[in-house]
Amino acid sequence: MGIIAIDSLSPQEVEVALKAHLDEKRATILREPQGRLAHPYLVPGSYDQAWDWDTYFISVALAGWAPAHRHIRGTVENFYANMDEQGRAPRWVHPGKDFWTDPGMIGENFSNDLAKPFFAQTAYTYSQATGDASWFKPYLEKQRAFLDRWRKERMGTNGLHVWANALESGGDNHPDVFGWPHFSIEGVDLAVFLIREHLASAALAKACGEFSYFMQFASAARFLLHQMESFLFDPEAEGFFNRYRPTGQFVRIESSVRFYPLWLAPFLTIPVEVRRKILKRDLLNPNKFWGPHGIRSVSMSDPLFNNFHGTSPSNCQGPVWINENYIHLCNLVSCGYSDEALELAFRVQKLLLKDLETRGAMAECYHSETGEPLAVKGFVGWNLLALKFREIALADHPNVHFHCLRAGIGTVAVEMH
Prior knowledge:
Layout: H1 3-7, H2 11-25, E1 30-31, E2 41-42, E3 50-51, H3 52-62, H4 69-81, E4 92-93, H5 103-107, H6 119-130, H7 140-154, E5 162-163, H8 166-169, E6 185-186, H9 188-207, H10 211-231, E7 233-234, E8 239-240, E9 242-244, E10 249-251, H11 272-283, E11 290-291, E12 294-295, H12 322-334, H13 338-359, H14 389-393, H15 397-405, H16 409-416
Antiparallel strand pairs: 1-2, 3-4, 5-6, 6-9, 7-8, 9-10, 11-12
């Protein structure tokens, strides 16, 4: 097609062309049971293992495609099968390796890491897509143990949890966590993930008719939300920040995780006018996060901003990441920025289409200013989310929360308020 031709396409034409490419590639991430993994599973990019949050974002992207359903459910079951009796689950599961004893993990001191809390969110996505939540009933106790492990190992007296390290967070070299002492950063993103995970767990418990589990999960979600708003929001700066546990001070770095709490829009007590101001002032500011190819992972005005190529760790200090842009897209719509959401959808879809037309492949992340493909230049995973971008941007305001949260908000909200 060529770059010039792509630049002349309408948003609808870009989406149709992108869909043709991604429909062709999506089957490449499906795996059948093998080795240590007894169930079908999903793998991102050129990896051999399934990853915690990758699985969730891929499940959202493929929820409408029936051939992927057993792989979505199977990946969750594989993670639970590799979880110990104390609720410790690995960040990845591999058909031939054990995360806890793998020399690479032990050598880098990552064997103390926990899986990011996305199991219930993935399970709920599957259950919504298939209309069946009953399969999850035997896993409710495992899910309780998993969330209890996070509480016992990582929660402080203020109700906030810490990341072990930047790689555990999935942000690789994200400056909000990378370079700080291990187990010292109370993450805004972690708070959001845990709240959503408890909400999804509550929704699944309710669907399974397990009221006791439902109450445990729902009440924990309410508590964690209150603590996040109390300790991670700076009313003077009107923004969320990570927090350095030893001193209680905010980590005042202009990173994109600051906007993650808006993904909890139906529950936040912060007025929508303040949320809109945050997005207008920062996210939609071309001199900060609003880039020509999508939302930057760090503000262009921050001294740490860069687009260096990196794979170990991958660069989260400026480049555009599709999974993050999915979250930002949901936030724009929930705050009433529909036109901007449509523009973001167009920019990201065009970015991926150009790469596919030029190289026949996609990357894990992209140079925020030039659109150059960076890490893992053969990546098929959460990039598949881009196919949902226009659908989300065009969604009615009340419904987009439910689509984006994928966590049973509609069934939990009554009990939460």
